[in-house]
What does this fold into?
Amino acid sequence: LVASLAGPGPGTDVSGILGDLLGVPTRTVLTEPAAARLGASTSPGARGDAVVIDVGAGTIDVIGPGGEVVAAGAGDLLTGAVAETLGIPRAAADWVKRGPCVRVEGGQRFEAEDGSRGFLDRPAPAAAAGMLGVPGPTGLLPFGRGQAPGEWRALRLRLKEAVFAANLRRALSSMSSVPQQVLVVGGPAGDDELVGVLSRSLPGGVAVGRGNVGAALGGQADGTPLGPRHAAALGLGLGGG
It folds into this structure.
């Protein structure tokens, strides 16, 4: 199974090219956005008229019952914006962008984004005193001294709104109707702040939720639910069956 962004039209016969290269019979089942919609529809409570938002590293795919829009600018763009704003490497920005931070006050003491104070699980390095920090791949990841925790939270949410919500509104503007239900899937959908950012960008009354891919399949497939990830892969499997 191979996902492709190419839609129907001249010069887009990806299956024919693969067949020639591999020497095996091939056929086109679904485009990647259509597969993501089919996979997301296996979430409990998903409606037939839901709009699926598949958020990836490079694009936001907005897929409705009657059409789809692929909008450039997603997870990687947010990483770059955070790195540029804070003057930190992109590898660090990929962790910093994800959610709440604390300010290390020395030893194990910290101040959270809501102004509350507490203690870290283990002492922070002495050099991290006075710095903001987030959970990183090997523990606390210090990243800056320029803002208070609440200030960085406000700026982080504004960056997410500028990247994700603005892109979503732009994509929806080309669709004929306002959605009543929105399902968010893809790797960045694991960001707990993303659903709120997208929800606030839509008209009141639109239900926005994170997909739980595969959870509504019941006995039709083996394995456990996939959370918001792998909607396109599951959709390709279901569409190719």
